[in-house]
Structure formats: C-alpha cells, structure tokens
Amino acid sequence: xxxxxxxxxxxxxxxxxxxxxxxxxxxxxxxxxxxxxxxxxxxxxxxxxxxxxxxxxxxxxxxxxxxxxxxxxxxx
Length: 76
Prior knowledge:
Layout: H1 2-18, E1 41-48, E2 52-53, E3 59-68, E4 74-75
Parallel strand pairs: 1-3, 2-4
C-alpha cells in the first residue's frame, strides 16, 4: 500500500514538472531616437490633469512616469 501511495505521489510530481511551459524571454527593445528640435515632437512629463487629446500628426515622448489623474480624459 505504501508503495502505491509513493508511486502516486511520484507520478503527480513528474506530471507537474514535465508539463510546465517555459516563459519566453522578452527581447530588449531600444526606443527610436527622436529629434527634440522637431516641432512635431511633444515631450510629456508629470500628470495629465485636464482633458487632453493627442493627434496622429505629432510624436509624443513620455519622460518618466506620466499618469492621467482622476476626472481627466486622454483621447488618443
């Protein structure tokens, strides 16, 4: 009886370790270089506390953490 229980635990342990998917390695992404003198580049820092709309004709560069605060809306 003890051998049967040990065999059962061994089978479960083997099943749990052999069926594990490996996590894919995230590639390192290098952001593109943006010319800050370009008039179509908008640098965004800090909190967005007023309703704001971003348009496709500009490039938005986020410096540090940028949060949209409660009550504000960011439309992209």
